[in-house]
Design a protein that fits this description.
The complex is a heterodimer.
Chain A lengths: L2 H19 L17 H20 L29 H8 L6 E6 L5 E4 H6 L3 E8 L5 E10 H8 L7 E11 L5 E9 H4 L5 E6 L2 E2 L9 E3 L12 E7 L12 H4 L9
Parallel strand pairs in A: 1-10
Antiparallel strand pairs in A: 1-2, 3-4, 4-7, 5-6, 5-10, 7-8, 7-9
Chain B lengths: L2 H14 L3 E3 L3 H26 L3 E3 L11 E9 L5 E7 L2 E4 L7 E2 L4 E2 L15 H29 L1 H6 L3 H5 L1 H9 L11 H24 L2 H6 L2 H6 L2 H29 L1 H10 L1 E3 L11
Antiparallel strand pairs in B: 1-8, 2-3, 3-4, 4-5, 6-7
The chains are: A alpha+beta, B alpha+beta.
Chain lengths: 263, 287
């Protein structure tokens, strides 16, 4: 055996052993590459764009999320995020059981309007027993009643340049030193027009509880819970998400979560 | 050649003995290392994601007002007021402070499912965990699909992975040999190797990909039958976790076997493709 062969074998083995022990030196070694500003994280996050496009190709625009029978509702809808907003504007409405509430719809629409809760309840309704999936990993089955968002959009006549629906909310989320910012969310028009996308005012055959987003929350059944804004104050049709928050399309998105949460 | 070199060289040939053969094609080596890298990141980011809700359930939903949990890693208060990390498996509770449910130092305890050294990032950051997980999930699945279909067409799966009848028959001997760390370095995988690789590549890999997809609310709309196949989203999540644990066990055994069978030769074969087989022995010589 020539010395070269021995060296080559040794080199490859040592390289292999060295490579396999690098990750074992501790996971915090990689933390620096994974902060929200890191370009490495941006590269990894590009896979989310791939997921979004793949889902849009694979999943028909009107394909329904699974619905369940009422017997599968075995518990109350688990609340998460804000569960009891304390903003004065919200408290004033809550005091009068939302009798003075008006949902405003504006932005890129022909006919900006506002609806009272009673008006929304008089519009065509849809009820669906669906599974709510939290990004944390848990699921909860509940019945949701509301008006299809598409019916509301038809009333206001969406302008052709609109690409997204933004939900503005009453509740503010505390960000520590940088103070509190209002919750907001956004979806594309495919999900906005989806038959199961409803502005829900009822949960499990009762008026939507405060913990679950009273008076109005959106259900986007093919995405995760954080997309389904609660305590909706207004809806805005827009062509870009840049002007809102940090421009990522939602409160959690601004903190690093993906905008498309169908996964 | 110096004396030392000569002795070493003789020693090496005595130890290695047989012929060096080309055992792993470049496609095999490439997929092996793609999977190794992808699974490393998938594991650590997956544990990060698990930590966001460190309880697993059976069924369609998570029981908050009823109990369908099968595994949980959470901190709990003891009768004396102190706190410990507890792991509950199928109703059996174990104190796992320092590892599961509660870790970190005594002065600065961290209440989390898996400890910081086992997650990416080390601190709690579900969003980044998901970013890492989904990037490497694409890589892993793409490598798997490429491997599966090309190996099916090339006959690699039938020839080298699926155990033959003879392999099954010789399985008890093969298991005995492995337990005694007595290895036969041959060009082909032995029965136990084939069975293990078949289970990992044709069972656990597809299962972990499919249960991952079954957790996606978008995919649930596209393929609702998928959920029924696994018995609901929360069962799929539990199966995904079990597959992960099985792959960790496989990894540990895999590395132990490599070290025991001769790390130089094994590493060389998976890096360069070349593997030194045992010398052909017509008769056994005494030591």
């Amino acid at each position: 055996m020539s010395p070269l062969a021995i060296n080559r074998r040794r080199f490859l083995t040592l390289a292999g052993v060295a490579a396999s022990t690098v990750p074992l030196s501790g996971c915090d070694a990689l933390d620096g590459f994974l902060s929200n500003q890191s370009p490495v994280r941006d590269v990894l996050a590009s896979a989310n764009g791939l997921t979004y496009r793949a889902h849009r190709i694979l999943i028909g625009a009107d394909t329904l999320a699974p619905e369940f029978s009422e017997s599968e509702i075995r518990q109350g809808q688990r609340p998460n995020g804000s569960t009891d907003p304390s903003e004065p504007e919200y408290l004033a409405l809550k005091d009068k059981t939302f009798a003075d509430y008006r949902l405003t719809i504006g932005g890129l629409v022909e006919k900006p309007v506002s609806f009272s809760l009673a008006e929304l309840r008089n519009m065509p309704a849809r009820a669906q027993v669906t599974r709510h999936d939290c990004v944390e990993g848990w699921s909860c089955i509940a019945k949701w009643t509301g008006v299809p968002l598409s019916a509301v959009l038809d009333e206001v006549k969406v302008k052709p340049e609109a690409r997204f629906v933004v939900f503005h909310c009453f509740d503010k989320m505390n960000l520590g030193l940088s103070g509190a910012v209002p919750y907001y969310e956004s979806i594309d028009l495919i999900d906005a027009r989806h038959p199961q996308t409803i502005l829900a005012y009822g949960c499990n055959d009762q008026a939507l509880p405060v913990a679950n987003g009273a008076p109005l929350r959106v259900r986007i059944e093919r995405q995760l819970g954080y997309k389904m804004a609660k305590y909706i104050k207004g809806i805005e049709l827009v062509s870009t998400l840049a002007p809102f928050g940090s421009g990522k399309g939602g409160f959690w998105e601004d903190l690093g979560y993906e905008w498309y949460a169908g996964i | 050649m110096s004396i030392v070199d000569e002795v070493e060289s003789r020693h090496a040939s005595a130890r290695d003995g047989g012929e060096v053969i080309y055992r792993h094609r470049v496609a095999t080596r490439l997929t092996h290392w793609t999977w190794a890298i992808a699974l490393f990141f998938l594991l650590l980011s997956g544990l990060q994601i698990f930590n966001a809700h460190p309880t697993l359930y059976i069924g369609k939903q998570s029981g908050f007002e009823f109990d369908n949990s099968v595994l949980s890693m959470r901190p709990m208060r003891n009768a004396d007021g102190s706190v410990d990390g507890y792991t509950t498996v199928l109703g059996q509770r174990f104190k796992t402070t320092g590892l599961f449910g509660m870790s970190g130092s005594a002065e600065n305890p961290s209440y989390r499912g898996f400890p910081a050294w086992a997650t990416l990032p080390s601190y709690q950051d579900l969003a980044t965990g998901r970013v890492i997980h989904f990037f490497f999930a694409w890589l892993f699945a793409a490598a798997f699909l490429t491997w599966f279909f090309s190996s099916l067409l090339s006959g690699h799966i039938r020839r080298d992975i699926l155990p033959s009848l003879d392999d099954i028959k010789s399985l008890p001997r093969s298991i005995g040999d492995h337990l005694r760390f007595r290895f036969h370095r041959e060009s082909r995988y032995n029965g136990l190797q084939k069975l293990t690789y078949a289970a990992v590549l044709l069972l656990i890999f597809p299962l972990i990909i499919l249960t991952g997809l079954a957790m996606s609310p978008g995919m649930n709309a596209a393929w609702p039958w998928f959920l029924d196949l696994f018995g609901g989203r929360q069962t799929a999540r539990s199966i995904h976790f079990i597959c992960m644990a099985l792959l960790v066990v496989f990894f540990i055994v895999h590395v132990v076997m490599i070290v025991a069978a001769g790390p130089f030769n094994e590493m060389r074969s998976i890096l360069t493709g070349w593997y030194r087989t045992d010398p052909e022995k017509k008769e056994e010589h005494g030591a």
